[in-house]
Amino acid sequence: MGRGTDAIVIGAGIMGAAIAFELARAGRDVTIVDRLGAPGHGSTSSSSAIVRFNYSTFDGVATSWEAKHCWEGWPEHLGDHGGPLARFCRTGMIVLDTPQVPQARAATLLARAGVPFEEWGPGELRARVPGIDAGAYWPPKSIDDDEFFEEAAHELGALFMPDAGFVDDPQLATQNLVTGAQRSGASLILNRTVVEVLREHGRTGGVRLSDGIALTAPVVVNAAGPWSGRLNQLAGVGGDFSIAVRPLRQEVHHLAAPPGFNGGGLGPSIADMDLGTYLRAGPGDTILVGGTEPACDELEWVDDPDEANPSVTSSSFARQVTRAARRLSTLRVPVAAQGVAGVYDVSDDWTPIYDRTELDGYYVAMGTSGNQFKNAPLVGRFLATLIDQVQAGHDHDGDPIRYRGEHTANVINLGAFSRKRARNADSSGTVLG
Predict the structure, then answer these.
(1) What is the mean pLDDT of residues 113-123?
(2) Which of 91, 191, 201, 330 is close enough to 131 for a disulfide, judged by CB 3.0 to 4.6 Å?
(3) Any idea what the Cα angle at residue 360 is, between residues 359 and 361, rounded to 5°?
(4) Residue 150: is it exposed, middle or buried by C-beta count within 10 angstroms (0-12/13-18/19+)?
(5) Domain 2-85+169-244+349-417, CATH
(6) For residue 272, which phi and psi values (nearest 5 degrees)?
């Protein structure tokens, strides 16, 4: 048994949903396939969904700035929807200055992309964030190290981006996109695993699912998140990739916000690579706390995403929340660990791969977990543009496609996300990209 379609998108997380939405809206017959029982239930469900603009390349900054406008006008982006919608919460974001991400370099990229920002000194930082410690503790240290609690020798400043924020419900945002794709005629197949990538005359022919059904299509998009590497092996691609991806287990912890932090509304997100953590406001006067992969911590790489521990651990909770409490002096650290655990799809330089492959008709949107949720609306447009032009014969490897933002007019070089690119030497080497 089998059936034909124009394009198959593997993965119904935020990336696959956005890609399917744009392909279907452009008039393609699209089938979305996911191994789980509902859209957005994989790594997307663990996303902090922060919308920020501090990346290590101009193309990364320009992508996030353009995507912000899509989130801000979410109903208009989706068109006729008719159901409950995810909401963009504008809170602003503070990025503390560290040697790993020099403030001057970040400010230059933000200014070039047209992103509004303010430069704060230690006094402004203390005035704007109740209870914050402006001390510089670089480099991050283990909480078991006696030096972790030593006094700071000097203070640090920060960049503040007032237009940053977060999306309040990442699963709902994913469902919004899937619903939009379905309204344009897309089909959704859940609880099925891809067991074979089909070939026809040396190019993509479709996929075979775990129930034996074959879906034929000239275009297949790998947006499978932590399972993307495994899917590439099935497709027999990756031999010409200069950038690899690996699954990485991560945790984000939830706890009561420190007194006054949310100020009756929602406090700002804070990127604190000086101590090795980040946080954002949550519902009901809470905050979410995650890590920025400091060198003093051992990362939890996994061979099989299906075997990763799905529960938060007391050790990770203590590590990340203690760091947050070092920065916010009035934060109370609870005894019981609460939060979510998930598996990221991480590239060598924490920059995603949005590209074609050596198998004609087979495309990838991978290495996205942790720092690309915010860019999903634009990633959908990137892949739709890439597929249209490459399928029509354009040599993207030799002449990288440029995408002009509808809202910002910034020109983004899609070659910055090539599978064959040089490793991003300016990357922070962390989730911040």
Answers:
(1) 98
(2) 330
(3) 110
(4) exposed
(5) 3.50.50.60
(6) -120, 75
Provide the pairing of β-strand 245-256 with 219-222.
unpaired
Helix (H, G, I), strand (E, B) or coil at 413: strand
Per-residue tokens: 229: 């590497």
Q: Which of 88, 101, 110 minimizes the C-alpha distance to 168?
A: 88
Residues 338-369 pLDDT 10s: 999 999 999 999 999 999 999 999 999 999 97
Judging by DSSP bridges, how do beta strands 411-413 and 402-404 pair with one another? antiparallel
Tell me how far apart the alpha carbons of residues 339 and 353 are, in angstroms, rounded to a whole number: 29
Q: How confident is the model at residue 58 (pLDDT cuts 50, 70, 90)?
A: very high
d(CA 128, CA 130): 7
Q: Are 109 and 57 in contact (CB under 8 A)?
A: yes
- In this prediction, residue 237 has a pLDDT band, given cuts at 50, 70 and 90, of very high
Residue 118 in contact with residue 159, Cβ under 8 Å? yes
Of 305, 203, 220, the residue nearest 32 (C-alpha): 220
For the chain, what percent of residues have pLDDT higher than 90? Answer: 90
Cis peptide before 139 (omega within 30 of 0): yes
Which sequence spans correspond to the domains of the chain? 2-85+169-244+349-417, 92-163+247-347
Closest CA to 247 of 429, 420, 43: 43
Is pTM beyond 0.70? Reply is yes
CATH fold of 92-163+247-347: D-Amino Acid Oxidase; Chain A, domain 2 (3.30.9)
